[in-house]
Write a structure and sequence with these properties.
Number of strands: 4
Helix content: 25-40%
CATH superfamily: ACT-like. Chain A, domain 2
Structural class: alpha+beta
Number of helices: 2
Number of domains: 1
Protein name: Putative iron-only hydrogenase system regulator
Largest sheet: 4 strands, antiparallel
Strand content: 35-45%
Pfam families: TM1266-like
Strand order of the largest sheet: 2-3-1-4
Distance between the termini: 10 Å
CATH architecture: 2-Layer Sandwich
Radius of gyration: 14 Å
CATH class: Alpha Beta
InterPro entries: Acetolactate_synth/TF_NikR_C (IPR027271), ACT-like_dom_sf (IPR045865), FeFe-hyd_TM1266 (IPR023860)
Order of helices and strands: EHEEHE
Amino acid sequence: MERVAVISVILEDAKVCQSEFNNVVAQYQDIVRGRMGIPFKDMGISVVSITVLASIDKINSFTGKLGNIDHITVKTAISRSMENEQN
């Protein structure tokens, strides 16, 4: 069953980890429905919000890979279910 999830990511040293972050996001581009990034250049931090539609396993795989990147913090909110999904 597919779920909607919002993945919040803080890149705490954006110059160091941005390339690896973008590579992981590109691997999961098929599930990404939206992405918004806000740079805080004076602090060297970027905040990114990614909305996805996928199975729990795929969401967990994606967030796990992001969370394994140094200088990145990840938090995820996942919908309970899709109301319009038919059995």
